[in-house]
Amino acid sequence: xxxxTMLAFVAGVAASxxxxxxxxxxxxxxxxxxxxxxxxxxGVPELDVYYPGTETVAPDEMRVVALGTGMPSARPKQxxxxxxxxxxxxxxxxxxxxxxxxxxxxxxxxxxxxLDKVFIGHLHVDHxxxxxxxxxxxxxxxxxxxxxxxxxxxxxxxxxxxHAMDLMEQMYAWDIGTRSGVIDFRGGVLEVHEFAFDGVNxxxxxxxxxxxxxxxxxxxxxxxxxxxxxxxxLTFVYGSDTVPNQWYVEHSKGADIxxxxxxxxxxxxxxxxxxxxxxxxxxxxxxxxxxxxxxKVMSLVKPRLAVGYHFYNDFDTEPEVRERVRKTYDGPxxxxxxxxxxxxxxxxxxVRMSAIxxxxxxxxxxxxxxxxxFTDAISFSEFTLSGVLAWPEVVQPIYDEINEIYGTxxxxxxx
Length: 415
Ligand SMILES: [Zn+2]
Ligand SMILES: [Zn+2]
Description:
Layout: H1 5-16, E1 62-68, E2 82-87, E3 92-95, H2 101-106, E4 117-119, H3 125-128, H4 131-139, E5 147-152, H5 161-171, H6 173-179, E6 190-195, E7 202-207, E8 210-216, E9 225-231, E10 234-238, H7 246-251, E11 257-261, H8 266-273, H9 277-287, H10 291-301, E12 305-309, H11 318-325, E13 333-335, E14 340-344, E15 349-353, H12 382-385, H13 392-406
Parallel strand pairs: 3-4, 4-5, 5-6, 10-11, 11-12, 12-13
Antiparallel strand pairs: 1-2, 1-14, 2-3, 7-8, 8-9, 9-10, 14-15
Bound molecules: zinc ion (2 copies).
One zinc ion (ZN) binds at residues 81, 124, 126-127, 241, 310.
């Protein structure tokens, strides 16, 4: 069954003009039943939209959600690289965790204990910039499970993932200090798995029927990789960043869903971003993959669905990018924008857009919290405490209210 290739185009365009969109036209799409509202026409094909938190993943299904499809430069519409993979066996995986993606992830309404596996393709900030907020923010969003991170080695130990994670923990010493002895900090524990960047189709993860392999990528410096996830006869490929390379083409062949960067064409880098022609050519074809190169990669890989990302996907850029991809590839194609959702089964691949609840809250903890050892708390100095305005007439009634409701006897005071 061919994916609905036109749908992604419509989704991208509609999303760019602020519409709530949707699109699934699965083969079993129904003609809408006679609506209660007579102003709605009958006979309109049922439109569909993905509402996070309302659909379970079917036992044989893979759901992929685009949570960051843009560029390093921040903008409201598109965060930097991040894709969520949810499997019918209950497992969930994050591939890259670029700047700005955390709020999109929060919008998926997934308890943080389920979000404990992050695979980082390379250490550019647009591919792991939101790791600190996800890691430490997660500790107050009720993640009580260590955060597991997989990432490549570099050309030297100092350029590898393990070193970066070590320094990240040091960098956030103050943040961690504020939580020590104050909250259940199990979710703040990092479990880091660094693997060799030059492993070719090496297994780096094998649990619960899910295998993740790594292949080298060519981008920036030694130490960039792409990932291949296999489960239940379905294959998901995530390129992170790379110029076209032999490993991706060889090991992604026939994937069910193959994601690869598809950068802005050099012409747009010049006209819309002020790059010099040489900068645009170098960045757009030698550091990244232009739409024409992306198309050539996909014409060799022949996935069931090719997904391009990593460009400003707007009403005026999407058609040009698509046209350029079509010079070299005529297969199923989606040009991703944030909140695009792919439901993948052996029979079908559906592409939709999400409707997002902007007022989402984190879910309550799934595990019982363990009271911290308060003696681990770091005290304020006498100096800082001397500045406190305790205002017991204001604060005591707040304590009284809680103590009365919960039968407790807490007393205010900073230490
Ligand atoms: Zn990069
Ligand atoms: Zn990138």
